[in-house]
Specification:
CATH superfamily of the largest domain in chain B: P-loop containing nucleotide triphosphate hydrolases
CATH class of the largest domain in chain B: Alpha Beta
Number of helices of chain B: 18
Largest sheet of chain A: 8 strands, mixed
Number of strands of chain B: 8
Strand order of the largest sheet of chain A: 3-4-2-5-1-6-7-8
Radius of gyration of chain B: 26 Å
Oligomer: heterodimer
CATH architecture of chain A: 3-Layer(aba) Sandwich
Shape of chain A: elongated
Order of helices and strands of chain B: HHEHEHEEHHHHEHHHHHHEHEHHEH
Largest sheet of chain B: 8 strands, mixed
CATH class of chain A: Alpha Beta
Largest interface: A-B, 79 and 78 residues
Chain lengths: ~350, ~375
């Protein structure tokens, strides 16, 4: 089990595009909720990826419940700008902005300002205190931009604040930095696939995040092909030349499988073994580069529809952890609940 | 080319919806979310076209290093160069060129083209705001890809241009790019922001004046004075170039809508990738862009194996080592069948939402594609 599921206030999920960042963020949220935490999953890129994963049409700038104990939010930069300005006493200006369509020009003149607003919103949700009119969370899971852009994204408040030594922008930037740099509260996780390019990019991403002083907690390797045959790969090579022994076993058990069917079965298994071997080699490279950091593997799901059932299944794996280590009592219960 | 005349009679009609469009289209745009194999798909389509007699150029944005090397791509030139690899048609009508797009350089070339004189071009190119704008504004990169595409199209050097779109934050940025750029360049509001004092004096605009002043203060605070001055200079330098720019963007946009262009949406059978593909297909339809085909890479397939009753499987498990192995093989096969069926269900679901869309399914290949031989193997699946 990933310890940070129980301890972090903010989980930042990044990774190369196409590695399942959003799916893993959703699954982390559901896994933490299964362990009794109140969770908010936040999306910042306007892709509406979370909505589909939770079986909903679309999410907006309001926090909506998407699963037991899980709320989700798609942060809108324009809305964030209005909130931000309102907070610092520029409410009429915020209204004017909408009217004059000026948001785009502001963010074009000051690249990074949009990111400041998005990060600011995440910080606000992660540090919010419960009041009658607001909901507080134990954990915020951020589906962050991909590895190539995540450091400038997270450091945007800092960059902007360099220009302001005092005042509200500086103050907020300091507090955002305090949260992001604190390994006790924040954990950055990278998603990866057991493929060549993603492994290389993940290791580069880990190095870049560490160099920026951000607390990297581990890597989630997604869509890993399970090794069901283990040491019997050599035997398969022999059987592909002569499936006779399998034919005998089939006949003895009364399974009606002709040689063509047996050939298909062996060929499929050998394809899969080749895939497993390649993936193990790449994961070994990844592990070596991670220097003892957590590496969690999630299986390629066979029948998943890329929706809520997949998210629950993956959450079960995240909460249960590697199969060789028997999960502790609470984790087992949580995993069961998440699967159900 | 033969396929369109006598050849078509001899050969059976190709089943792949890609074959027809690769033979006839002038432009093929491959789009889709990141990590789905857009670049390799585009390169394989271009190679197939070249080997079928067309003068082809593949324009790529961000290829994997090894594929770039294999295609002899060189960022420095920002111009097409012939792909040197064994087995390519040396003579005859077909040829394959490739280029890797340098966004910034393309933008610079556009400025040079529309500037009144070299001096105006230099002023813009040296402007810091321009330098930021050309690399950071959402949609700019996507637009520049289309701009280069249009330039090559106009040159008439090629029968077919194949391009892969950048892995955008949102695939939609790319369609919005001409609008975004136009809007920015036409930013009267932006000019107000730069020089509120001179431009706004009248009473009814006092509210806006106040607001822009407050905003100017804020932008100043965020960007520093110097940059704001550069913004002003940029717009001053840009004066008079705007109409040419806008007209050009209109032409580029029209060419993308033209029936001789075909968009190919690339995806994997993963739920998220297919959802993004559906969204993209919807947007293309809404903008009346010609959607040519859907390519789904990395498909799992299970072979034909009769179902074995549970009782027989239990007897296998209770048997010797080979019996247990066979039971495991059957289990793996059932898993593969389930996975394959789920993928097909997701693809059907997408097709229900986007009617009349030709689909090409490419099986999961044993190795990453990073040379011409690999592209040819991929092409065999794409055009099967």
């Amino acid at each position: 089990m990933l310890e940070v599921l129980d301890t972090a206030r903010l989980l930042v999920v990044t990774g190369k595009g196409g590695t399942g960042k959003t799916t893993v963020a959703a699954a982390l949220g559901v896994a933490a909720a299964g362990r009794g935490r109140r969770v908010l999953v936040v999306e910042v890129e306007g892709r509406q990826g979370l909505a589909g994963l939770f079986g909903l049409g679309a999410l907006d700038h309001r926090e909506a419940q998407v699963a037991d104990g899980v709320h989700a939010l798609a942060v809108d930069p324009d809305e964030s700008l209005r909130e931000y300005l309102a907070r610092y006493g520029f409410a009429p200006l915020a209204r004017l902005l909408t009217w004059a369509h000026l948001n785009r020009f502001i963010t074009a003149a000051a690249p990074g300002l949009g990111d400041v607003l998005l990060v600011g919103k995440v910080w606000e949700a992660a540090t919010r205190e419960a009041r009658p009119e607001t909901r507080a969370y134990d954990l915020v899971v951020l589906d962050a931009p991909p590895t190539g852009r995540v450091v400038p994204f997270l450091r945007a408040p800092e960059t902007v604040a360099e220009l302001a030594r005092v005042g509200p922008i500086r103050h907020q930037a300091d507090r955002v930095r305090d949260l992001l740099d604190d390994p006790g509260r924040t954990a950055v996780l990278l998603t990866c696939l057991p493929e060549e390019l993603p492994v290389t990019e993940t290791l580069e991403g880990v190095a870049a995040l560490r160099a920026a002083g951000l607390p990297v907690a581990g890597v989630v390797a997604n869509r890993v092909t399970g090794d069901r045959l283990g040491g019997r790969a050599g035997r398969l090579a022999g059987l592909s030349r002569d499936p006779g022994p399998l034919a005998e076993a089939a006949a003895a058990a009364g399974a009606e499988l002709d040689r063509a069917a047996l050939g298909t079965l062996v060929a499929e298994a050998r394809d899969r073994q080749r895939q497993v071997t390649r993936e193990r080699r790449l994961l070994k490279e990844l592990r070596a580069g991670l220097d003892g950091m957590a590496l969690v593997e999630l299986p390629l799901l066979n029948g998943g529809a890329g929706g809520p059932a997949d998210v629950r299944a993956l959450a079960g794996h995240l909460a249960a952890g590697p199969v060789e280590a028997p999960p502790a009592g609470p984790a087992r219960r949580a995993a069961g609940a998440a699967r159900g | 080319m033969t396929a369109r005349t006598g050849g078509a009679v001899v050969r059976p009609a190709p089943a792949s919806p890609l074959a027809e469009l690769t033979r006839t289209a002038r432009i093929v745009v491959c789009c889709g979310s990141g990590g789905v194999g857009k670049t390799t798909t585009a390169a394989a389509v271009a190679l197939w076209a070249a080997e079928h007699g067309r003068r082809t150029c593949v324009l790529t944005i961000d290829p994997a290093r090894r594929l770039a090397q294999a295609l002899g791509l060189d960022l420095l030139s920002n111009a097409p160069a012939p792909v040197k690899a064994t087995g390519l048609p040396a003579r005859g009508p077909g040829s394959l060129d490739a280029m890797m797009l340098d966004m910034r350089r393309t933008f610079d070339e556009v400025i040079e083209r529309y500037a009144r004189d070299p001096e105006q071009a230099d002023r813009i190119l040296a402007n810091r705001f321009y330098q930021r704008l050309s690399s950071t504004l959402a949609g700019t990169q996507e637009y520049m890809a289309m701009e280069k595409l249009y330039e090559l199209h106009e040159s008439q050097r090629y029968d077919l241009l194949v391009v892969d779109t950048p892995p955008t934050r949102s695939a939609l940025d790319f369609l919005d790019a001409p609008d975004n750029l136009n809007e920015l360049l036409d930013a009267r509001a932006f000019r107000l922001l730069i020089a509120p004092a001179q431009r706004i004096g009248r009473g009814y605009l006092r509210g806006l004046n106040l607001a822009t002043t407050a905003m100017t203060r804020m932008v100043r605070r965020v960007t520093g004075n110097e940059l704001l001055a550069e913004v002003g200079e940029f717009f001053a330098a840009f004066e008079g170039m705007y109409d040419g720019f806008k007209e050009r963007a209109g032409l580029v946009y029209d060419q993308l809508k033209h029936p001789s262009t075909a968009f190919v949406v690339v995806a994997t059978p993963d739920g998220a990738a297919l959802r993004e593909a559906a969204y993209f297909a919807g947007r293309l339809a809404a903008d009346r862009m010609p959607l040519g085909a859907l390519v789904v890479n990395r498909i799992h397939r299970a072979g034909p194996v009769p179902e074995v009753p549970a009782a027989a499987r239990e007897r296998l498990r209770a048997g010797g080592a080979d019996g247990r192995l066979l039971a495991d093989l059957l289990e793996l096969h059932v898993g593969l069948e389930t996975l394959a069926a789920a993928e097909q269900a997701r693809i059907r679901e997408l097709l229900d939402r986007v009617p009349n869309l030709g689909v090409v399914q490419v099986p999961l290949l044993a190795d990453d594609v990073h040379d011409v031989a690999g592209l040819r193997k991929l092409g065999a699946h794409l055009f099967a």
